[in-house]
Give the backbone structure.
Amino acid sequence: MLIITIKVNILLETFKKYLQLNYDRSKRQSKARHLPYTKNRTTTEGNGQTAYIKPQNYEISKTRKYKKDISRRENMEYHADRDSYIYRNGRELTVTNERRSKTASGYVSVKTYYRSPDCTGCPYKTECIKGNNCKTPMEKRNKVLMVSKTMSQKRAEDLERITSE
């Protein structure tokens, strides 16, 4: 996917240079995970183009199962002033740390980790905490949420752009 993205960027630069054509709109699909998706978005914005990239979760986000899944970030209440999420039982997920990772192409992504201080006694614990292959027993586990704020913002912008036109 990265090779295709690079070739499309080279092609657009060639059009701009030799044909004096300037494409202000670009329609791309990101079939890979979210890092190439955000890289595609930042590349098109850097070229002065408007991206029409359908988010990877677009089709599944319209299903009833997705909308009722309490473990998803999209179904939690976000408080920007405290930078925290409130999930179904009224408990708060607060920021614990941020992690930066760099891809082979040089793109740097920042993920924010949110964690619940204590999930003991929560009646929604089995619905909220996913992953059955963990060595830690369910009774000792707490909810952890990873969020890339850049990706979330770009995904919301693309969703608005796709559904508005």
User: Anything to note?
Assistant: The helical segments are 2-18, 34-46, 64-68, 125-128, 149-164. DSSP finds five helices and seven strands in the chain. Residues 29-35 have pLDDT under 50 and may be disordered. Residues 2-51 form one domain.
